[in-house]
Specification:
By secondary structure, the chain is an alpha/beta fold. It is built from eight helices and eight strands; from the N terminus they run βαββααβββααααβαβ. It has a five-stranded mixed beta sheet. The protein has a three-stranded antiparallel beta sheet with strand order 1-3-2, with no helix packed on it.
Length: 202
């Protein structure tokens, strides 16, 4: 489950196409088609960020690997309100060298300098404050601890003898990777993210 496991790339989502005459119509309109194991997929135009965010929530383990936990802003990070700018999601990736990622879900039509960079900078600056970092650790711990399945999976991932809260505190004390999930990568996005040492575009 490291980041290299994520078999997802920029350039639009795929969605299963229907059978019959509808396929002919789509082809005639110039829609890209993909055939995998007899299943037809068509290029899917993402209409808004909410739609893309929902796709990320539903397919988080496909994107980040099975040995990961995705915390989305709307549900699991709600209690961080008031801490500053809350990212669209946070990811913990277990393994021999655990990582945590700040996740921003964006559309290529948005200016990264106006949308992504200010949000990421505000969050990173916020967690430089020890009280804010403690609140983040407590929030993640409470989410894990309140879900028996999540708690069991976390214990198995970090070692049954390890304390989950201490694991989270140690992890969050290290710099995060900035992960941008976007339907189409752009040169402007690459340029905007150049300032961050650890980043990933999906």
């Amino acid at each position: 489950g490291d980041s290299s496991d994520a078999g997802v790339h920029a350039g639009g989502g795929g969605k299963g196409a229907g059978q019959g005459g509808g396929d002919v119509r789509r082809k005639s309109e110039g829609v890209k088609m993909l055939l995998i194991d007899g299943v037809k997929y068509q290029e899917w135009e993402i209409s808004n960020e909410d739609e893309l965010e929902q796709m990320v929530i539903e397919h988080a383990q496909d994107i980040f690997g099975e040995n990961s936990i995705y915390f989305d802003k709307k549900q699991k990070l709600k209690s961080l309100a008031g801490v500053g700018s809350i990212p669209d999601g946070l990811v913990i990736m277990f393994g021999s060298v655990p990582q945590w990622h700040i996740v921003e879900v964006e559309l290529s039509s948005h200016d990264p300098y106006a949308h992504i960079v200010p949000q990421v900078d505000k969050f990173i600056n916020g967690i430089d404050n020890q009280n804010t970092r403690n609140k983040l650790v407590d929030t993640l711990y409470n989410v894990i601890n309140s879900d028996e399945l999540l708690k069991r999976e976390t214990r198995q991932a970090i070692g049954l003898d390890k304390d989950i809260h201490k694991f989270l505190a140690d992890l969050i004390s290290r710099p995060p990777t900035i992960t941008i999930i976007i339907e189409k990568a752009t040169d402007q996005l690459e340029e905007a993210l150049r300032k961050y040492a650890q980043k990933k575009i999906i």
